[in-house]
Amino acid sequence: MCREIEPDLLAVAAGEAGAAASERVKHHVASCAPCRAELGSYRALDGLVRTLRSAPLPGDDPTVARAELESRLADLRRRILGFGVFASPLGPILIARSELGVSMVRYLEGRVGPTTAEVRRLLGEDAVEDRAATEGLHRELLEYLEGWRTQLDWPLDLRAARSDFQRRVLTATARLPYGAVTSYAGIARQIGAPQAARPVAQALRWNPVPIAIPCHRVIGSGGGLTGYAGKKIGLKQRLLAIEGVRTEALRGDFRVPREAMYVRALADTEYCLPTCGSLSRRPLAELTLFGSRERAEAVGLSPCTTCRPDLHPLQR
Question: What is the maximal distance between C-alpha atoms in the chain?
Fold first, then answer.
């Protein structure tokens, strides 16, 4: 059946199929994943050919013509996204990557993943289902969710970021260490816009690659989790719990208790007990909170020589 329907796949991809052939392909690819992926590849290739045909012809110099052609092909390759939809402890997750790196991680609603057409509406018409290109990313993500991995060393493609401001916010957030939290105001201070806590929160709400860029480690100035990926506050709490960050349930939210966290002030090279000096009175924007001594020391911090958290650790 798959061999018989291949000519129809090509015709549909090229926009030349009749109604009967289109209907056959529609019913077939609904239950045949290989042909569904093949159709996506044909459509992507057809799009490349159409783009090349519509491009202006190069001059007579064959060297220049070859360089222009290679440049256009490279640009077209970078626009193609391969994606996969996978099961995870957090529910179904979409992972998409381009030639440059991972461009999207998205939590999906329900138990059944979206159709290829739905994903294309999200990612663009150049998206192609390619589980082989994304299965390795899925395995690494599961290792993180199971506590075996503390970092996702993925190359990232942030061309879909909404603005230069959002890129700055994402870059600063990516530097937050595993098992630590700071506030939206803290990220605003790091990017040189100390009054922009609310815009920072909005920029992180539309983070295209959550977990890889750990926006779950950014909380409200009062310690509340406040929001995550829309209204998925429970996912934020679960991700923090994986990293050893304690939370307390509030009405409709969770809170990270400062009094139960080790503290680094600004760019200090030491970490302290939360009661050390004036730390309890300083705003969270000036602090990074760690869930454990091990996590603070993993980023090169030493125990404070005044409060000695190594000799007087927090009681759990």
Answer: 80
**pLDDT digits over 105-134, tens only?**
999 876 556 666 677 777 776 788 888 889
Helix 164-174 and helix 197-205, axial crossing angle in degrees, nearest 10: 80
Query: What would the pLDDT profile of 221-274 be if each residue is shown by its tens digit?
Result: 999 998 887 678 999 999 999 999 999 998 888 999 999 999 999 999 999 999
**Burial classification of residue 64, based on how many CB atoms lie within 10 Å of its CB (0-12 exposed, 13-18 middle, 19 or more buried):** exposed
Tokens of 2: 């798959």
Q: Is 215 tagged catalytic?
A: yes
65: which residues sit within 8 A by CB, 6+ positions away? Answer: 58, 59
Closest CA to 49 of 72, 16, 68, 65: 72
Residue 55 token pair:
């491009």
Q: pTM of this prediction? A: 0.76
User: Annotated catalytic residue: which of 35, 215, 276, 304?
Assistant: 215
Give the list of residues 6+ apart from residue 279 with CB closer than 8 angstroms, or none.
Answer: 263, 265, 272, 287
**Start-to-end CA span in the chain (Å):** 63
Which of these, 229, 232, 280, lies nearest to 254 by C-alpha position?
232
